[in-house]
Design brief:
The complex is a heterodimer of chains A (about 625) and B (about 190). Chain A is an alpha+beta fold and about 625 residues long. Chain A has helices at about 35-45, 90-95, 105-110, 115-130, 135-160, 170-175, 175-185, 190-195, 200-205, 210-230, 250-260, 265-285, 320-325, 340-345, 415-425, 465-495, 545-550, 560-565, 585-590; strands spanning about 10, 15-20, 65-70, 75-85, 240, 245, 300, 330-335, 335-340, 350, 405, 410, 435, 440-445, 455-460, 510-520, 525-535, 535-545, 600-605, 610-615. In chain A, the strands form seven sheets. In chain A, strands 4-3-19-20 form a four-stranded mixed β-sheet, with helices on one face. A three-stranded antiparallel β-sheet of chain A has the order 7-8-9. In chain A, a hairpin with a 2-residue loop joins strand 17 (about 525-535) and strand 18. The longest helix of chain A is centred in the last third of the chain and has 31 residues, at about 465-495. Residues about 50-65 and about 620-624 of chain A have low confidence and may be disordered. Chain B has a six-stranded mixed β-sheet, with helices on one face. Chain B has a single domain (about 10-190), classed as HybD-like (Rossmann fold), CATH 3.40.50.1450. In chain B, about 35% of the residues lie in helices and about 15% in strands. In chain B, strand 1, helix 1 (about 25-35) and strand 2 form a beta-alpha-beta unit. The chains are: A alpha+beta (about 625), B alpha/beta (about 190). Chains A and B meet through helix 5 and helix 10 of A and helix 2 and helix 3 of B.
C-alpha cells in the first residue's frame, strides 16, 4: 500500500480502488496561515522589531522567485520562511487549443537551459495519448541527447551557480575561521584533481577567475557541441518530435558525439573528487553544517532514459517500461521507497492553489486513470489553470507557484532524487557501467586520460545542502555512463541497419486522448499532462522541479521544500554586526536545490533594519 | 575621420521575441539580412547566450574587427522610436555584478547588458563595438512593432547598414557606453 493519506487502496490482485464509505474522499483541511503570522508578529513586537519589508523581487533582469526569511540573529535561528514565485508563465494557457505537435516546440521555451527535457516530456505525453511507439534508435538517441543535456546542466550548477558559495573568497568573508583549516587539510582525491589542499580547491572555485569555474564554462561548451549534433540546436532542440527524433544519425554522428562524451569520463572523476573533498571538509570542520538545508529525504522522480526494448509509450505498460528505465521512477518518503510504479506516481499527484494566485477549478472529469486507479479532482488531468492575480499576503496567497503534493505530502525534486531512488530501489535492469546496491550507486568509469575507476555514491545519513550538491556531482559520471551505454546500443543498431529513428503518426480529429510525459529535467522531476480533444490540446499541465521545490505552503499549512529546508538551517556564518550578515547558510540551502529560475532571496534580520538581498540565479525555467 | 571599409564585421540582433518594440532586433533581422553588404559582413541573431558567443568569438581564426548590435533598451528620456547610437568603451562593473551577469547568461536570460559585460570580461570585443538602440517604450507583448517604430524602420536599417559598413561618423553623435557605469546608468534611467 503506497498511499497513507489519499483514499486509495489496492485489492489482492494489486488493482487500485477508492476506499468506500467516505463522504468526500478528497476533502482537505485549509488552515489559516494568519495564525502563524500573528505569532511571528507578536514575537517581533515583544522584541521591538516590527518593520515593513518590501518583498518584491529585485533581480535586475528576470527575477521570478523571491524568498523571504525572518532570522533571529541572536539565537542564530530562522523563524519564518516564504517562497514566492513572482511571475505567471502560463504555458498551460498558451498551449490550450493548439495542435499537439506545437507542444514540443512551445513548451521547450519554458526553460532557457533545459528546453530539451520539456520538448521530450511533451513528445512522450503525445506518444502516450496517441499510441505512437518510437523505433529503438529514436529511443536510444533521445536518451543520449538528454543525458548530454544533463552534462551541460550539472557543471553549470556545481561550479558557476552553487560553487562560488564554497569558494575561498566567499568563505573568507563569511567563515574566515575555516580558511586556515582548509590550508592545513590535505585533499583526499589529489590523484584525480591534482589539488594538494582543500584551500587550493577553494581558490579555484572563486568566481570569474578560478580554474574550476572557467573549466566548467568550457565543459558546458563540450556538452553543447555534442547536444547540437543530435538536437540541431541548444537550448531548444529542433529535432525532438513525438515518435522519436527528426534527425539523421550515422556512425559519423556517433563518433562526433563520442569524442565529446569521453571528456566527461575524466571530468566526472575530477568533479566528484573535488566536491567530496570540499563537502567532507565542511562537515568535518563543523558537524552543524549537516543541518544546513536539511529535510527528510521525501522526494519523487519520474525516472528517465527508456530501454528501447521496453518502451511502448502506453499507459497500460508504463509501470513495466518505467521500471526498466536506466533511472527508476518512484517516490521516497523519509528515505524509504514507497513506489517505483509510474501509475502510482501519477495517481498520487495533486496540485493545490489555496495559497497561490489561481482560482480553484470546478469539476472532476477524470475520476480514474485509464487503468481504473482513482484520481483526485486536484490531479493535473483534472486541473485547470485559471490565473487570479491579487495582493500578496502571507496569510492567504503569496505565490504564482502551486502546491503540488504526492499522497498529500510536499515532495522534493532533484537530479539527486533520480540517483537516490535508483540506488535504493534496485529495480533498474543490469547495466554495463552502473550498479545499484540499495545503499549506494557504483559507477564504473572507463579510462580516458585518467585510469578507469569505480566511483561510489552513498546514500547519506542526513539529506542536506551539502549532500544535494555532492549527489549532483555524482550525476555527472552517472549521466555520462548512461550516455555511453546508449551510445553502444546506437552503434549496434546502426551496424544492424536499424537506422529508422522516428514513427509517422497522424493527429486524430475525433475523440479524446489523454497521456502524460514523465522525464526529469537536469534538476529533477518533470511531468507534462495532456488532454487532446478533437485534434487539439484541451488541457496541458506542466509540473517542473521548481513547482515542487518552490511550492508555498499546502492548504493544511505544511511548508514547501525550500521553506522547510531553510527553516531547519542554522546560522553558522560569523559576523560582528547584524549589517555584516550575508545569509550564506540560507543561500547554500536554497542553491542546493538548484532553484529553477532566477531567484532573489530576501533575508530580514530580526534584530536590525538590515535586509540582505542576494540573487540566487539558476536556470530560468518557470513555474507556471 | 577616414571611413574604414571592408572590416570584418558582425551585426547581431539581441532581444526577446514577441515583445513588440522590445523585439526590434529579432523582428528586423530578416530585413537586415536582405540588405546588400560587402562579403566581410555577417548578420546573426545573437540570442544564443553570452557564454556561447564568447566561445564562438574565441574560436574565430580571423576575428571580427567591428561589432554592431541592434537592440531596444527602455530609457525614460526618449520618445518611442528614437534611435540612439552608442560606442562601447570597455570597463567592467564589480565582480559581484559580473558573476550575476554570468549567472543570468548561463541560465538563458537574454540581455544585451550581460552580453556586453561578459564579452568585455573575456576580452572578445574588438575596438569598434556599436549599439544601435531604439527606444521601445514600456514592455508589451505582441508580434509587431508599434507604428512609431515601424515608421523609423527605414532609418534604422540605413543606420545599421552604414555603421556596419563604415563605422560611425561624428554626425552620429554616438554616446559612450562604459561597463563600469552600465548598471548604474540603467538603474538611474529606469
Amino acid at each position: 500500500m503506497c498511499f497513507k493519506n489519499l483514499p486509495i487502496a489496492f485489492d489482492e490482485q494489486g488493482n487500485a480502488y477508492l476506499k468506500e464509505g467516505i463522504d468526500d474522499p478528497y476533502e482537505h483541511k485549509v488552515v489559516d496561515l494568519g495564525v502563524e503570522q500573528d505569532k511571528l508578529k507578536s514575537l517581533m513586537e515583544k522584541n521591538g522589531f516590527i518593520r515593513s519589508v518590501d518583498y518584491d523581487p529585485v533581480t535586475r533582469v528576470a527575477g521570478a522567485l523571491a524568498f523571504h526569511s525572518v532570522v533571529d540573529l541572536e539565537k542564530k535561528k530562522v523563524l519564518s520562511t516564504n517562497s514566492m514565485a513572482t511571475l505567471f508563465r502560463g504555458y498551460e494557457v498558451i498551449l490550450k487549443g493548439r495542435d499537439p505537435r506545437d507542444a514540443a516546440y512551445i513548451s521547450s521555451r519554458a526553460c532557457g537551459v533545459c528546453g530539451g527535457v520539456h520538448a521530450t516530456c511533451s513528445a512522450l505525453a503525445i506518444e502516450m495519448a496517441l499510441g505512437i511507439k518510437p523505433p529503438p534508435l529514436g529511443v536510444v538517441m533521445r536518451n543520449i541527447l538528454l543525458a548530454i543535456e544533463y552534462l551541460y546542466d550539472h557543471p553549470l550548477h556545481l561550479f558557476l551557480l552553487a560553487g562560488p558559495d564554497y569558494s575561498e573568497e566567499l568563505v573568507k568573508e563569511t567563515n574566515p575561521e575555516l580558511i586556515e583549516k582548509a590550508a592545513n587539510t590535505k585533499a583526499k582525491n589529489k590523484d584525480v584533481h591534482g589539488y594538494d589542499t582543500v584551500l587550493d580547491i577553494m581558490k579555484d572555485l572563486n568566481p570569474l577567475k578560478g580554474k574550476l569555474y572557467l573549466e566548467a564554462l568550457s565543459m558546458t561548451r563540450v556538452a553543447r557541441e555534442a547536444y547540437v549534433l543530435i538536437g540541431g540546436k541548444y537550448p531548444h532542440p529542433q529535432s525532438v518530435v513525438p515518435g522519436g527524433l527528426s534527425v539523421t544519425v550515422t556512425i559519423s554522428t556517433l563518433n562526433e558525439v563520442y569524442s565529446r562524451l569521453v571528456k566527461f569520463f575524466d571530468y566526472g572523476q575530477k568533479t566528484t573528487g573535488i566536491w567530496d573533498d570540499v563537502f567532507d571538509f565542511f562537515l568535518e570542520s563543523n558537524p552543524e553544517y549537516a543541518k544546513c538545508g536539511v529535510r527528510p529525504a521525501t522526494m519523487m522522480d519520474t525516472g528517465v532514459w527508456d530501454r528501447p526494448e521496453a518502451y511502448d509509450a502506453t499507459y497500460k505498460n508504463c509501470d513495466t517500461w518505467g521500471e526498466a528505465r536506466w533511472s527508476t521512477p518512484g517516490v521516497l518518503v523519509d528515505g524509504e521507497v514507497v513506489t517505483t510504479k509510474l501509475t502510482q506516481l501519477n495517481a498520487g499527484i495533486e496540485e493545490f492553489v489555496e495559497h497561490s494566485y489561481y482560482e480553484k477549478w470546478d469539476g472532476h472529469k477524470y475520476k480514474e486513470d485509464p487503468l481504473g486507479t482513482p484520481l483526485s479532482p486536484n490531479h493535473p488531468w483534472n486541473k485547470e489553470t485559471i490565473p487570479k492575480p491579487g495582493k500578496q499576503s502571507w496569510r492567504e496567497r503569496y505565490s504564482w507557484d502551486t502546491s503540488p503534493t504526492w499522497d498529500r505530502m510536499p515532495m522534493e525534486a532533484g537530479a539527486y532524487s533520480r540517483m537516490y531512488i535508483t540506488a535504493k530501489a534496485k529495480v533498474a535492469p543490469k547495466s554495463k557501467f552502473l550498479e545499484n546496491t540499495g545503499h549506494s550507486m557504483k559507477i564504473h568509469v572507463p579510462k580516458h586520460q585518467l585510469p578507469g575507476k569505480t566511483l561510489e555514491w552513498h546514500i547519506p545519513e542526513h539529506w542536506n545542502a551539502f549532500e544535494r550538491n555532492r549527489a549532483r556531482a555524482y550525476c555527472i559520471p552517472y549521466s555520462a555512463m548512461v550516455a555511453m551505454d546508449n551510445w553502444l546500443l546506437a552503434m549496434d543498431l546502426l551496424k544492424q541497419g536499424k537506422n529508422e529513428i522516428s514513427t509517422k503518426f497522424e493527429i486524430p480529429k475525433t475523440g479524446t486522448h489523454i497521456g502524460f510525459g514523465a522525464w526529469g529535467a537536469g534538476r529533477g522531476f518533470l511531468t507534462h499532462h495532456l488532454v487532446v480533444d478533437k485534434g487539439v490540446i484541451q488541457n496541458y499541465q506542466i509540473i517542473t522541479p521548481s513547482t515542487l521545490n518552490a511550492a508555498p505552503r499546502t492548504p493544511w499549512g505544511t511548508p514547501g521544500p525550500y521553506e522547510e529546508a531553510v527553516l531547519n538551517t542554522p546560522v553558522l556564518e560569523k559576523f560582528d554586526k547584524p549589517e555584516d550578515y550575508k545569509g550564506i547558510d540560507i543561500l547554500r540551502a536554497i542553491r542546493s536545490f538548484d532553484p529553477c529560475m532566477p531567484c532573489t532571496t530576501h533575508i530580514m534580520a530580526k534584530d536590525s533594519d538590515h535586509m540582505v538581498t542576494r540573487e540566487v540565479t539558476t536556470c530560468a525555467c518557470g513555474i507556471e | 575621420m577616414p571611413v574604414e571599409l571592408n572590416k570584418r564585421t558582425i551585426i547581431g540582433t539581441v532581444g526577446y521575441q514577441l515583445l513588440r518594440n522590445h523585439s526590434v532586433g529579432p523582428i528586423l533581422l530578416p530585413q537586415i539580412r536582405e540588405l546588400k553588404f560587402q562579403n566581410t559582413v555577417v548578420v546573426e541573431e545573437m540570442n544564443w547566450g553570452p557564454i556561447a558567443i564568447v566561445q564562438y568569438f574565441q574560436t574565430l581564426e580571423i576575428p571580427f574587427e567591428r561589432v554592431v548590435f541592434l537592440v531596444a533598451i527602455e530609457r525614460k528620456y526618449r520618445n518611442i522610436g528614437d534611435i540612439s547610437i552608442f560606442k562601447w568603451e570597455g570597463g567592467l562593473p564589480s565582480e559581484t555584478q559580473i558573476q550575476a551577469c554570468i549567472g543570468d547568461a548561463a541560465t538563458g536570460v537574454i540581455s544585451v547588458e550581460n552580453l556586453l559585460v561578459i564579452g568585455e570580461f573575456f576580452k572578445i570585443w574588438p575596438k569598434e563595438l556599436y549599439l544601435i538602440d531604439v527606444e521601445p517604450g514600456s514592455e508589451v507583448a505582441g508580434e509587431h512593432l508599434s507604428e512609431e517604430v515601424q515608421r523609423k524602420t527605414p532609418e534604422i536599417l540605413e543606420i545599421v547598414h552604414r555603421i556596419a559598413s563604415q563605422g560611425i561618423t561624428p554626425n552620429d553623435r554616438a554616446g559612450a557606453l562604459k561597463g563600469d557605469k552600465l548598471f548604474e546608468e540603467m538603474s538611474h534611467e529606469n
